[in-house]
Specification:
By secondary structure, the chain is mainly alpha-helical. It folds into three domains: 54 residues, no CATH class; 67 residues; 96 residues, no CATH class. It contains seven helices and two strands, in the order H-E-E-H-H-H-H-H-H. The chain has a two-stranded antiparallel ribbon. The radius of gyration is 63 Å and the shape is rod-shaped. It starts with 6 loop residues before the first helix and ends in a 6-residue tail after the last helix.
Amino acid sequence: MPLQQSSTERSAPRVPNHDRDLSQLKFGGFSVDFRPSFQCSFRSSPARRAASCATLLLLLLLGSPAVAQWGGGMGYNRGGYASTAAQGAAYGMSEMMRAQGAQNLENSEAAKNWQDAKTQEIQNRMRWTETYFEMRKSNKEARDAEAGPPVTQEQAIRMAKMTVPPRLVSTQLDPVTGHIEYPIVLQDSIFTPYRAELDKLFAHRASSGGSLQYEQFQEIQRTVSKFIDVLKDNVGKYAAGDYGKARSFLNSLAHESRFPSG
């Protein structure tokens, strides 16, 4: 007949061997490895030491779902892992939506920055154009101020008349015969070829009724121009007053060819 256990023996917990290795413990479907960071060590009786270790392990196992659910202190309301596959998918979807929103925000900021830069460029070009035309206006006003008031029509006519050589009188150019009475300086022998050519042209002008053909007019102008060039080459031979009278006479002779004789 088997021995019956007393009530005291039935109520007392069974104490495992205190030499048992606690580095790996199995409870139901869980396996917990405490090596090398965990070791139960108590300076007490074997029964109390075993009870304390079992209590600590139970607290760890009961606390692990809450840690997984609330993120274990990693991030906001979640950590780097999920307790279920659905929760992990939801986390991934939320991260994707957050990234899309952040991209949209950054794109909108970039678009605003581009528009601001374009607006600044247009404003700079407008200021450059305005400055350019303001500088032109200021330059024109300064030049006009230095030049003085513009010449009126009456002043222009008067100045034009002043620059036109005076016409020769009949004692200088005979309208009937075409004879030319040259100043003393122009009677120098170096001018003989030019005097002869002009005498012939003006004599033909007088004999033809005081008019000239265009070819004859051009010939008079060319001959007078050559006459003046030779006179300028010999300016040192003559007095200033005589040179001035000779030059004015030749200018009037060239101008006279524009009019009919008589």
